[in-house]
Structures are given as structure tokens and as C-alpha cells.
Amino acid sequence: MNEKMSIKELLSGVEVEWKKLGEVAELKRGRVISKTFLTENKGEYPVYSSQTLNNGEIGKINTYDFDGEFVNWTTDGANAGTIFYRVGKFSITNVSGLIKLDRDSNLTYKFLYYWLSIEAKKYVYSGMGNPKLMSNQMAKIKIPIPSLKVQSEIVRILDNFTELTAELTAELTARKKQYSYYRDKLLSFNDDEVEWKRLGEVGEFIRGKRFVKNDMNLENGIPCIHYGEMYTYYNIWAKKTKSFVSKELVETKKLRVAEKGDVVIVSAGETIEDIGLGTAWLGDEKVVIHDACFFYKSNLNPKYVAYFTRTKQFHDQIKRHISSGKISAINAKGLSKVIIPIPPIEKQKEIVSILDKFDTLTNSISEGLPKEIELRSKQYEYYRDKLLSFPKEADE
Predict the structure, then answer these.
(1) What does each C-alpha distance from 100 to 49, 83, 103, 132, 388 come to in angstroms?
(2) Which range of residues forms the domain containing residue 199?
(3) How many domains, the chain?
(4) Of 219, 202, 227, nearest to 336 (Cα)?
(5) Helices 345-363, 368-387: inter-axial angle, 10-degree rounding
(6) Is-contact 206 255, C-beta < 8 A?
(7) What is the pLDDT of residue 184?
(8) What is d(CA 339, CA 281) in angstroms, rounded to the nearest whole number?
(9) H or E element at residue 341
(10) Of 144, 154, 220, 295, which shows the fewest CB atoms inside 10 Å?
(11) Distance CA 183, CA 306 (A)
């Protein structure tokens, strides 16, 4: 029997009681747990806060405030309204909330977790620039309560999708580590295998010129790359841009443009790790470059250079030339001092071909594991929404 049939049968004529969360559960907030406390009381029990990275964990301490099965949510900040299912011994901070179901609630925690994953974000208040989802708002969320048998079956189906996505994500993480290893290995050579030269000896760094995000509101025009997009949008190479500026702006401000075969390298960021990422521009049109980037002109294979900018040996070299402050940055002089191994052009092409295959498997959203994960996530959301579509109360 396929999933669609089982869902149809499962929900056919199902009776549901609706109650507000505050009627079936106790809602608690965490306590202030400082970085100093985390450092001085290291242990085995996780502390969860308002972040979503690392499953919300910000550290481990030697005591715990809660022990058992719960639903946890983030109360403040950009991730307000994110829902987690928790089991075991742990603590939460003051920007995190906890749900403890009443014994006679006729609800399971996993079912509640899946329901709130859909509903909670709708109750987030974003006034004053700081999104919040406090306990009083959470308490108002209406919860459908079908039979425990129906809840169990819905959880079983959704758990299967979640586990499959988790397995694919774990595999992708392993592939990325493997990719980084082989990339660094392929771009490491013995002294007698290649020439070693400074980037400034074999090419030239040209800094872009300033334009702002408001200049990039066109759907077409002259292609441009803003430094912020280098972290969020571009990878090893690009033929098309996400953004455009007007021809008039380019001419009036005398903006600088990179050409096909140049490598765009970001030169400013919030952290040292952000600096130096390179993208080979392979588009036929010229592209306008932001002033927090350089474009590098040389006779080297542009994708070879772009891959090199993502190696440990490249970043180990540029770190000593980065100025740190509110914004970290590197200048052309610092970049020019970086020593790069230069094999024959055919060898560069061969290395690029191998790394392209790894890159496709680990980063391509149209192929490989990222595509599979995206499809599974959409499938999960489809079935979750179907499974959690219950008839509303008559007065709604």
C-alpha cells in the first residue's frame, strides 16, 4: 500500500478535538547561562539557546535542569519560533522555552513537535526589530488532538522522511570533508613538481568600485557582483549574475568591470575566515565588481585559481595580511604576496576537471546530494502538511 493511500485511509473520518496549548501543557522559560558559566562548568549535559546551528546547542555543563521528553522552542531573535524535540538531560537559556504536556493531555510530544513546526512561526511578533515568541503567545496556539493511534501513525510516517533526510545530510557532510581533503591534496605539490610564484608575479589585482544595494534593483542591465553575494550566492565559477546595475550608473561612477577569465576575490568580511573566497567569471559579458572585492587577471586557469583560494595553504598565507576590526579586510599588496603552485596548464585543467566532479556532487543544487536533499525536504513538507490537515472547529 502506498503512502498516499495510507494517508487517505488514516485521515478518513478522523475525529479531532481542538485545544489551546496553554490548556494542555505547562510552558516554561530557561535561565541565564553565561559564556563564563559554560566555560567554568564544562560537563556532559547540553545547553540549548536561541540559535539553530548544532541543533541549538551552545555548550555542555556538568548539571542539568530538565530530564525527560519535551518540546523546546526559541523565544527571541532571528530564529524565534523554531521548534525542537528534546529527550534526555539538558538545560535551556532564558531565550528558549520548554513545553511540558499535562498527563491527561492525550497528546504525544513528537506529534506536538510536528504540529508546532508548522504553526509556531505564524505567532512570532516582529515589532521593534527583535522577533519574539513569548509563552503567552505560544499558549494561544490551537492544537488538534486526534486519537493516540492516529498521532502515532502520523509520527511514524514523518519520522521516516526525517530520518532519510538526516542520512542524506550526514552523507553530504562526509562528502564535503572528503572533497576538502582531495582539493587540498590535489593542490599540494613537491618543490620539484611545479613552479612556485607569488600571485603578484603572474597576475594583477584590480579593486572594484563602490555601489550600494539600492543600485542593484534592476531585473536586467549590466551584470554586477556585490561582495555580500560572494558568501551567499557564488561558488567556484559563474557565467551569470544574480544582480544588475544600470548602464548609466556604470558610466557615471566609472565602475570597474572584470572580463571572462578573471577571478573575483572577496576582500572584506565580518571574520577572517570570510576573506579570500574566489569565483572564476566565465560569462561572455563584462561584470561590474564591488569595491570590497578584487578581480585577478592572469594566464592561469581561472577555476584553478578559484579552487586554490579555498585551500588551507591559501588561507594560512593571507591571514598574516588581514587587518582586523569591525570589518576584516585585505588589500592587493597582501594578496599579491601569496605563493601559488603553478603546474603546466594541462595539469591545471586536469585538476580542475577532477575537482569539478567533487564540487557537483557536494554543492550543485541541480545535481548530486544537494538536489536529492532538496527533493526529500519538499516531499517531507508535502506529506507533513497533508497529514496535519484536520477539519477546523465550527466557529472558525
Answers:
(1) 17, 14, 9, 20, 21
(2) 195-342
(3) 3
(4) 202
(5) 10
(6) no
(7) 87
(8) 22
(9) strand 339-342
(10) 220
(11) 11
Q: Give dist(CA 342, CA 225) in Å, integer.
A: 28
CATH number for the domain spanning 62: value is 3.90.220.20
Q: What is the DSSP string of 49-110?
A: -S--GGGGEEEEES--SEEEEEEEEE-BSTTTT-EEEEEEEEEEBTTEEEEEE-TTS---HH
Report how far residue 329's alpha carbon sits from residue 315's, in angstroms, rounded to the nearest whole number: 13
Give the residue among 115, 111, 77 at the shortest CA–CA distance from 97: 77
Q: Is residue 52 part of a domain?
A: yes
Q: What is the tens place of the pLDDT at every residue in 330-374? A: 999 999 999 999 999 999 999 999 999 888 877 665 566 777 788
What's the Cα-to-Cα distance from 337 to each of 23, 89, 230, 258, rounded to whole Å?
A: 66, 51, 22, 21
Q: Are 216 and 243 in contact (CB under 8 A)?
A: yes
Q: How far apart are CA 19 and CA 37, in angstroms?
A: 39
Q: Would you tell me how many other CB atoms lie within 10 Å of the CB of residue 49?
A: 21
In total, the chain counts a number of residues equal to 396
Same structural domain, 131 and 156:
no
Q: Nearest to residue 232, comparing CAs of 280, 266, 181? A: 266
pLDDT in tens, 41-71: 999 999 999 887 888 999 999 999 999 999 9
- Rounded Cα distance between 84 and 90, Å, is 13
Domain shared by 97 and 21, yes or no? yes
What is residue 392's DSSP assignment? P
Encode 122-181 in three state secondary structure. Answer: HHCECHHHCCECCHHHHCCCEEEECCHHHHHHHHHHHHHHHHHHHHHHHHHHHHHHHHHH
